[in-house]
Amino acid sequence: RSRPAELPDEVDPCQPFDEDFEDAKSRGHQHRQHQCPFPSLKLMRSRPAQRTVPAFLFDIDGVFKTGALYSRTGAAGLRKIFDAGLPFVFLTNGGGGRTEMEYAEEMRLKLLAAETADSSTILYDVEEGDKRPSIPSDDDLKGNYHRRRRRQRGKELVLREDQMVLSYSPFRSHLEHLKSLPVLIVGSKECLRVAKQAYGFRRAVHIDDYSRDNPLLNPFKRRTVAAATKTATARAEEVRRQEATVKEGKEDEWGHGPFKAVLVFTDPSDFFDGLQIITDVLLSSRPNEVEYEKGHLIPCYFSAGDLLWKSQHRHARFGLGAFRLALESLYSARMRSLGLSEAAVKARLSHFYQYGKPTLKQFKFGRDAVLRQARRLGCRISHFYVVGDNPRSDIHGAVQMAALAQHNPKRQINDNQANKSRHQHRPNCEPSWSGLLVRTGVWSEGDPTYGAAGVFDNVNHAIDHVLRQRISDVFVA
């Protein structure tokens, strides 16, 4: 039941008000000057008419898609949230070297394609747990045809840049102090463009470029490059070029001086190259000249920590967390080989900083993004729902946020207060959190759920569950 069509433009029930409704009734004569043509709406200027609604933080991989293939049920579920005008963001441990705007547009187009798919389109039957491509049945098509046509005639799905919280999104604001300093960027080649152009790390250097101009750091890569040339003469010339590069002191060519930090945006394209070069850079400001400098101590930031993630393969694949584990192990072993004490090893490892789910800083970043959405939509939040496929990151993070909300100095809002808050302004309420687990990704039957409030076949079922629980919040203005 939305806002009446005849409501005058100057009366907006979705805006916050300073006066309490009861106080306004007792001083009703003060409102006669407004000459409102609708007597029943005379006091709406003073009524805190903001909806108090649930909000969603969605994972992407294993929830809406597997690999590059998007689920039709995921598109249908998101359509319900969008049409109901509920605040939501995507909170992912991925990003793939895209900006938030690029990811939002790409995801919007693929969700629309999944939503409007017809019988000639081969879709991934994620909702049924079947990892084989399948064609929708005739019964499905007949049943969904009219609903699909209604969706096409309705509001166009819009995803905004500020609704995408990628694994490395916090780097933009949290690492402001590094933007004028030389930093080493690790990840796909596109990450350098994101770091420099979108986030403002003006003196960023990509690990592939650094490796190319310091070829002796990784002897295996040197062999690979030389072997790629077709003739013996060309191979010998390539080796001579690499040796000359080192003699000319290419480390100073960038003009950046020693790196002040390492920023791991995504998995490196060359796993071994990443392990070797990051270890060298962490141990010394001049890896070609000095093996270890005691006074050289720089931070290393990781954008995500998932050991596993869901791709198109039947089983989960290693994620960025696997790279961090390998780097920590090799870096520690290398320090011990140099004679460092266990205390010194531990002190250096303490300069590894983790972002991404399930860290509190990542979830707080996502929470702030949802709150901005709520302000834009003119509503308040009664409860945060995290929907994901990985209990160790999605659900564990939601449980941590629920504990934080419970111990927040602000009074926590509970389900009974949620209904009352639609009619009474409660500025000091802290909404609680729940984690909803789906079966379409990493989690398998029998695995621990880490405190999930429910387990569902797919994201569409999880959304339906919330809407049934919160129907009075969602559909009462």
Describe it for me?
With 477 residues, the protein is α/β, with parallel strands linked by helices. 40% of the residues lie in helices and 14% in strands. The chain has 17 helices and 19 strands. α2 packs parallel to α16 (459-469), α8 (219-228) runs antiparallel to α9 and α11 (320-337) packs antiparallel against α12 (342-349). The longest helix is centred in the C-terminal third of the chain and has 18 residues, at 320-337. Residues 1-48, 119-146, 148-153, 246-254, 411-416 and 418-427 have low confidence and may be disordered.
What's this entry about, in short?
This protein has 477 residues and is α/β, with parallel strands linked by helices. The protein has 17 helices and 19 strands. The model is unreliable at 1-48, 119-146, 148-153, 246-254, 411-416 and 418-427 (pLDDT under 50).
Q: What order do the helices and strands come in, and which of them pair?
A:
Elements: H1 21-26, E1 51-58, E2 65-66, E3 69-70, H2 72-83, E4 88-91, H3 100-115, E5 123-124, E6 133-134, H4 138-153, E7 164-165, H5 171-174, E8 183-186, H6 190-198, E9 204-206, H7 207-212, H8 219-228, H9 232-247, E10 261-264, H10 271-283, E11 300-302, E12 308-309, E13 317-318, H11 320-337, H12 342-349, E14 352-354, H13 360-377, E15 379-388, H14 391-406, E16 411-412, H15 415-420, E17 429-430, E18 432-438, E19 454-456, H16 459-469, H17 471-475
Parallel strand pairs: 1-4, 1-15, 4-7, 8-9, 8-10, 10-11, 11-14, 15-18, 16-17, 18-19
Antiparallel strand pairs: 2-3, 5-6, 12-13
